[in-house]
Structures are given as C-alpha cells and as structure tokens.
Amino acid sequence: MLKSFLSLWLKFPCPLCQRIAEDTICEYCQKKLASYQFSNPQHNWIGKIPLFAWGKYDGELSRGIAKLKYDNHPEIGVLLGNWLGQSWLKNCPVNSQQKLTVLPIPLSQKKLKTRGFNQAELIAKDFCKVTKYTLVTKGLIRIKDTKAMFGLNSLQRQNNIKNAFRVSDTWQQNPPNSSVLLLDDIYTRGTTVKEAAKVLHQHNIKVIGAIAVAKTMKN
Ligand SMILES: [Zn+2]
C-alpha cells in the first residue's frame, strides 16, 4: 500500500533487472516474461482435473515467480494474474457465460506469516478482476505445513500433501453456488490441486479444473 502510494512520486527499479521503469515491471522484462506464454494454454484441459496454464515454467518466468514469492515483489503477481485472466478470456475452455468461483490454493499460517502474502491469492485477485469471476480466499484451510515439492517423487509428493487441507467452516455451512476453479502459481504434477479437489468433493463441492501461471515441462 505504502509502495503504491509512494510510487506516485518516486520511481522504483524494475524488480527483475533493477532498471528504473515507467511501469512496475519494465517493458523489456515484460516482453521477456511474455515470451514464455503458451500459444495453446487450454492444451491440458482434459481429464478429471483439467488444467489451464498460462506459460512455461522456465528461465525468466520461473525467476519472476521466485522474485514474487521469496523477494517480496507482489507487483509481479498482479501482472501475472492480469495476463492469466486475459489469456483465459481469449482461450476460454468452458462456456464463457458460466459463473465460476476461483479458489487460490491456501498457504499454511506459518508460511503466510513468513512471506506476508499468498502469491496464489494475489494472482487470483487480478485474474478475477479481468474475468469477473467470484474470488473466495477462505474456502479451504491449509492445516499442514508441507515441505517444498521440489525434488520429491510422485509418491513422496502425495504423502507430503496428504491431509494438508480442510474445507472451511464457512463453506461447510454455505458451499459456493458455482463450480470451483482452483488457482496456483506453479503446476508440476498436479498433486496439490488433486488433493484440494478431493477434499472439496468430499463436501460435494464441484471442481471444474485448475489454472496456473506456469507449468513445468519436466516432471
Ligand atoms: Zn526489467
């Protein structure tokens, strides 16, 4: 908040290249990030939990997401959420009239405290600004502080995320009145979204699919 207020007078360096920029992310870095965009983001919209991913998790895009999460640059999330929303509208894999509830994958309280924000929630906020879908941030609660998934095999990932979520009291009493679209920053094997969907299904809450900013190409 203070940063956006101050930026009316001061110009901040681009978080990715440190050049003083007109925009929060300089034009040059925006172009670089945009080069990771998939031409067919709806390509993986198949199966039980179909996926819509904006771009390839690699190079500048993976660096940008790391900056967002570990170097306190929420403005990168705003940009990526906007791009994800625009791409969804352009390549919408569902009926464009359909109402949806967007649920960002929650962080544990511990992680939220350390990071100060949930990157999925930031991305979801701007995604919903563009798509006009309903954003709900308190549908699921993360009750387990899981380890980072990087370097874990499929079974280890499943065990790591098992029983990590519960449906919030609010949703147990008042389930959403439209299907849920799960949103995460990165999609690797889908272990997290599958576990989240499983818990929601146990409460008869329908999950239509998952969306992510970046999808890894190697598993
Ligand atoms: Zn830059």
Please characterize this protein's 3D structure.
GO terms for molecular function: glycosyltransferase activity. InterPro entries: ComF/GntX_DNA_util-trans (IPR051910), PRTase-like (IPR029057), PRTase_dom (IPR000836). Keywords: Glycosyltransferase, Transferase. This is Putative amidophosphoribosyltransferase. Belongs to the ComF/GntX family. The chain has helices at 2-6, 27-34, 59-70, 74-90, 109-115, 119-131, 154-161, 169-173, 191-202, and strands at residues 51-56, 100-104, 134-135, 140-142, 165-167, 179-187, 207-215. Helix 9 links the parallel strand 6 and strand 7 (207-215). By secondary structure, it is an alpha/beta fold. Helix 4 (74-90) packs parallel to helix 6 (119-131). The protein contains nine helices and seven strands; from the N terminus they run H-H-E-H-H-E-H-H-E-E-H-E-H-E-H-E. It has two domains: 1-35, no CATH class; 39-215, Rossmann fold (3-Layer(aba) Sandwich). The strands form two sheets. Strands 1-7-6-2-3 form a five-stranded parallel β-sheet. It has a two-stranded antiparallel sheet with strand order 4-5. The mean pLDDT is 92. The protein binds zinc ion. Zinc ion (ZN) binds at residues 14, 16-17, 19, 26, 28-29.
Number of strands: 7
* Helical residues, percent: 25-40%
The total count of helices amounts to 9
- The SSE string, one letter per element, is HHEHHEHHEEHEHEHE
The secondary structure category is alpha/beta
CATH class of the largest domain: Alpha Beta
User: What ligand species are in this complex?
Assistant: zinc ion
What's the shape? globular
Lateral arrangement of strands in the main beta sheet: 1-7-6-2-3
Strand content: 15-25%
Pick out the low-confidence regions.
none
Question: For the residues shown, what is the average pLDDT?
Answer: 92
Query: Whole-Å distance between the termini?
Result: 38 Å
CATH fold-level assignment of the largest domain: Rossmann fold
Largest sheet: 5 strands, parallel
In the CATH hierarchy, the architecture of the largest domain is 3-Layer(aba) Sandwich
Counted up, domains total 2
From the alpha-carbon coordinates, what is the Rg to the nearest angstrom? Answer: 17 Å
Protein name: Putative amidophosphoribosyltransferase
InterPro entries: ComF/GntX_DNA_util-trans (IPR051910), PRTase-like (IPR029057), PRTase_dom (IPR000836)
Keywords: Glycosyltransferase, Transferase
GO molecular function: glycosyltransferase activity
